[in-house]
Amino acid sequence: MGAEGICQIVDYRSNRPYKVEVIEGGKPGTGIILEHWHPEVEIVCKISGTAEHYVDGKRFFSHPGDITVVNSQSLHKVYPGQEEEGKRQAIVLLLRRELVDAMIPDYQDKYFCVTESLDREKIISLMTETAELYSRPEQINSLLISSRIYEIMYLLARDGLAPKEEAMPINKQKNQERLRGIMNYVSAHYTERIRQKDVAQRFYFTKEYFARFFRENTGLTFQEYVRRFRVKMAYEELVNTDKTIMEIALGHGFGDARGFINTFKQYYGTTPKQYRQYSKKQDNLT
């Protein structure tokens, strides 16, 4: 997985044009997915628990039995609710853009919407079968998986495929493009000092309009987004390296260790040191 806020690079198995992920409840905070985008179409069926989503600036909550579709290049993020560790939360199906284009040749002008008429029960059944087949090593299962994927896409297209300009007006599309540019900038410079007024000027906003634009389209202030991005990136080094807390803090744009510790505790519910100890203990149990 690539850094949030920029184009996510999806790691596929072999040469298959799809990927299936089963999401389970885990350590606190690990299910948070900040703004990112990818060329793939992403289909999510919620199995248990709840989650808060932002997709193309729209905020909604998913519950068991819900289907979420993230269109190609759509900006999206997820904040999971209370999770039971080890319990299946959701099944995620990622489809390469070239596969979607082969199934729907004019997809560049279309947009998948989740409508009331969508056959959620059938789609969840197909997604569950697909996840089970995907977990098996036999190559022949790829034929069965493909048949399930085509049926899922048929149901989505039948009940929820709309002209893109109707589902997402041009001005909204332009806003999302500008957001992608801003987030790419944060990803490239988050280890440095980032001032909101400088970023606003860089992207041709007034300071006041930039603040309003960013919050309306992400649900966060710009400063909150930068803090979350920094702590999420620092998290990867915390659990995967033996660097000191100070080294991690300074390497990810925090002015000192205290600022990192306070921010980490805000989002993960514990200090970085305690979280690292917990993570190592859990790894030793597996």
From TrEMBL:
<dbReference type="InterPro" id="IPR003313">
    <property type="entry name" value="AraC-bd"/>
</dbReference>
<keyword id="KW-0805">Transcription regulation</keyword>
<feature type="domain" description="HTH araC/xylS-type">
    <location>
        <begin position="180"/>
        <end position="278"/>
    </location>
</feature>
<dbReference type="InterPro" id="IPR037923">
    <property type="entry name" value="HTH-like"/>
</dbReference>
<dbReference type="InterPro" id="IPR020449">
    <property type="entry name" value="Tscrpt_reg_AraC-type_HTH"/>
</dbReference>
<dbReference type="InterPro" id="IPR018060">
    <property type="entry name" value="HTH_AraC"/>
</dbReference>
<protein>
    <submittedName>
        <fullName>AraC family transcriptional regulator</fullName>
    </submittedName>
</protein>
<keyword id="KW-0804">Transcription</keyword>
<dbReference type="Pfam" id="PF12833">
    <property type="entry name" value="HTH_18"/>
</dbReference>
<dbReference type="InterPro" id="IPR014710">
    <property type="entry name" value="RmlC-like_jellyroll"/>
</dbReference>
<dbReference type="Pfam" id="PF02311">
    <property type="entry name" value="AraC_binding"/>
</dbReference>
<keyword id="KW-0238">DNA-binding</keyword>
<dbReference type="InterPro" id="IPR009057">
    <property type="entry name" value="Homeodomain-like_sf"/>
</dbReference>
